[in-house]
Fold:
Amino acid sequence: MHDVGLETASDDWFVDFGNDGLPETHRIPGGRILSRREALERLPGLPQRGLNGAGLWYDAQVAPQQQSLQAAQQAAQFQQAKDQAEMQRSSYQTALGAGTQAINAFAGMQKAGQLVAEALDLRPGMRVLDLGCGRGASSIFLRREFGVQVWATDLWNSVSERFQRVRDAGVEDGVFPIHADARSLPFAAEFFDAVICIDAFPYCGGTDDLYLNYLARFVKRGGLVGIAGAGVVQDIGGAVPEHLRSWWTQDQGWCLHSATWWRRHWEQSGIMDIEVADTMPDGWQRWLDWHRAIAPNNREEIQALETDRGSYLGYVRLVGRRRPDARLSDPIVSVPVEYTKTPLLSSPR
Structure:
C-alpha cells in the first residue's frame, strides 16, 4: 500500500489511487482494473470516504459485501487483478519517467491538475488541448481519469519521447503528442471543448495582454479554459520581501501573480466569464515537494519556499468560460500588400 491510499482488511476488492495521483488498483470481479470514472459508472453505490490528489477515496472494506463475491471465484480473480495491477503500476512509472520519490512529488502537482480538470467539467469524448504538457504525464492523467481525447502539445520536450510514454501507458488511442509553439498552434478555430495548462501558462505568453485573444479562438463558444501553476498568494506591489530577493530574479519572479491578478487580467479582456479564481491549499508545500524530488540542487528556490512557507508563494487556479458573444480578432500573421513598380529616385529635371 502507499502513503496516500486505503488500508483494508480484505484483499477481495479494493481501490487505491496511490501516490502518483493516477487510478492504480481497482480490483473487481473478472480481474479488470478500472479508472475512477469507470468505477463510478459501474459501481455507483460505493461510499465516498475523502479526497486526494487523484479524486475520490472509497471505503474498500464494505465493497466485498456489496458485490457479493463468490468464495470460489475470489482466489483466481484476485491473482489475475494483482498481476495486472503490477503491470499497470510499472507502466505508470515508465510513463512518468520517474522513480518512487519523484512519483510521490508528482501527486501534488497532479492535485493542481485535478482541481482544474474538475472545474472544467470534463466528459468522455471531449477534445482537450493540454498546452505546455511537458513530457505528457498530465495528458495521460486526463485521458485515464476523464476519458477525454487529449492533444498533448509542447515545444521544449521531445515529441517522440512523449509518444513513447503515451504508448507505454496504454493511451495512444486518446492522447496525441504535438510539437508546437504556444503562439503558433496548428489547430482549427473552435476545435477544442476545453483548454488546460498546468504549470506552464507564463512560459506560453499568458501574461501578455494579447495572448488570451489568440488562445481563446481554439476553444468552442461557451468552452472552458483552465490554468494552474506557481503564483503568489498576495501580489507584491513594492519591494520584494527580503527572504525572496536572492531567488526573485528579473526574468522569473515577476511573472508570478495572484488569483486576483489573473481574474482581473482575463475579465478586462471581455472574452471570458470567470468561474473559478483561487489558491490551492498548501500549494507551496506541493511546490517544495516537487523541487526536492526533481531538482534537489536548486537550493535557492527550495530555500525560498522553506522560508516563505506560503506567506507569498503558492499555487493558483483560474477557470474561465469563453463568452458566446465575444468577438475574437484573427491574429495578424502577415501584412498583405500589392507591389507596384515605381522609380526609386526622382527623374532628373
